[in-house]
Fold these 2 entries.
Entry 1:
Amino acid sequence: MEIFYKIMTKSVSCCQPPKENEKLGGIKGILYGLLPHTFCLAFVVASIIGATAATAFFKKLLLLPNFFEILVGLSLVFATLSAVFYLKRNSLFSVKGVKSKWKYLSILYGTTILVNLLFFSVIFPRVANLSYGRSIILSQTGNVSQVTIQVQIPCSGHAPLIIDELKKLPGIGEIKFQMPNQFTVGYDSSKTNPGEIISAEIFQSYPATLGGE
């Protein structure tokens, strides 16, 4: 937290070249853009290394309603506070000051928003499809089936949670996530069926509907 505070309140002299100021705004924007996603990334890491207690802890956070929306909102709040501190410490907290530092502020907010979009549209979908956790080779059973499930998740950041919970069910094989909320689940039809899959506990928090088999 001390490092975070220093970054937020770091004074930048008005005598510094504009490029250095803009670079600092980009660094801060990346930091604030990353903040909302640390919990989901921590959940994925805990799942990969098999840290059950940590996975259970982060799962509780991910199950909170509108959890990611709140954190994304906080990232913009942090960016705004950073902008206010920057302008005040450089005696530019005015409409004229904002206009004179529009490049810095544009980079700060633009980077924050860009990092959020990058996570939602690229990183989380790819992370969700990583082969972590327990998997079953269904091709050797001769009873391979697939079912498509549409899950009402608030964002792609929740896809790793859905996959992790589904892999706990018996007879579940490869699971593929596709934006924005579709999961293709491979399963052994001698061990489970779509009805049992759709009845998984996770779908009490995030309702799901079946597609075609």
Entry 2:
Amino acid sequence: MTGRLRDRVRGIRVVQASGRYLDSPYSSVQLMLAAGGGLLFLGLLMSASTTISASVHTTGDAPWAQLIREVEFIVLSLPVFWLAVRMSPAAYRRVAYPALALALIALLGVLVPGIGVTVNGAHRWLQLGPLIVQPSEFAKFAILLWGADLLARKESLKTLTSTRHVLVPLVPGFTLVIALVMLEPDLGTSMCFMLLLLGLLWTVGLPYRYFAGLLLVVVAAVTTLAVTESYRMARLTTFLHPDLDPQGAGYHTIQGLYALSSGGIIGVGLGQGTSKYGWVPNANTDYVFAVVGEELGLLGCMVVLGLFALFTYSAMRIAHRSQDPFVRLVASGAAIWIAGQALINIGYVTALLPVTGIPLPFISNGGTSLVLTCAVLGMLVSFARHEPAAAKASQRAAESGSTARWVSMLRLGAPRLPVSARTSVAKQAAAAARAATEAPPAKPAAAAVAGAPAARQRDRTVRQPVAARAGSGQRPAAASRQQPGPHRTAGRTAARRKGA
């Protein structure tokens, strides 16, 4: 099982284009930025379209209140994204355990009365000054780093040959976090943690018989949790027969389908939809994809699906091209997490899955979710900047002197070398130039050495007439006026001495 981590990721059939673009060392960076930037731009558009109605019909705030809060979280996400881009893979490994400890403390804090914020009987938020954060979103990011670092260390120690070393303590750690999240309670977020666990185990190369058994355990646990609560059981029943209670449990599903079907091919226009005004519940969060279908139509839905597909492809490409086990595990785990969460959200909006209340990454309103998805995007961009091909291209640029910061930003390539490294490169180049200038004449080649006896014979042939004519004052023959080679120069010097 030791070598399966590399084989599992590299065995993915990543589509390669015949053109030159995907061969560029910076293509992974640009693809990831295109996917994440496109999703964030669509999320900002849909936020502007849906938050006005959400403020009026849901919270009773001013029309622009929720949009202003969304912009505040976007502004907060920008430095988080930039910091995530500047961090190296080694820095992410160093913060894995402190991040997990902080996440566990925060998950316990939401259960403490007076510290956690309770909404509709759910204890999922913490009040940090003017901001309300959801620790379970941060816990996804933290446990992904912890699980990847744990498995990468075991691979370096060659201990992944045993299934017990693969599952312990990884599965107990995930079980602890899922148990804390279920105390909130939050089944939808717990399913995201299960996706992360399955993604890591699949990437590390867990044998399929154990993987299938663990998958059955996960399905059984989700089913048990669903039937133990009345509202979850109602959601499961509504999924099978939404028309039995069209004004109650089936209202979300039916209205979401109406909104999707009313958009047609090109939609009714951005901001022109009517289902968000009290018809589709949670139109700015859980059911934002229904509003996308109504206002942007089938084409808008296909764009959203295409951008998520591009994001997943780019993350798997980064995992495929990396030589670091930690990077491969984190990149593939993040791809499965984001893609799986998007599929679950789109699945229950289109009535293909039971309603779970999971937001659509990058697009649904939500402060903590937006900040964490931007952190994941920045982390993947950082991994792409540290790909071997990108690092080599950056080093060549540093040696050639074309490492201006604005050039690096426009190129979106690997990180610049530190000042000490750039100084060392310059000193090495200067030393090499001085050595080339002050070096003694090169030794003659093998062919020249082999021809040395013949050259000495020609010296003697030329030297005697020259010496004889030097005493009589005659000018040398035309043959002796040819361009002198090294042996002719030596012959003339000896002739002059003899003549003198």
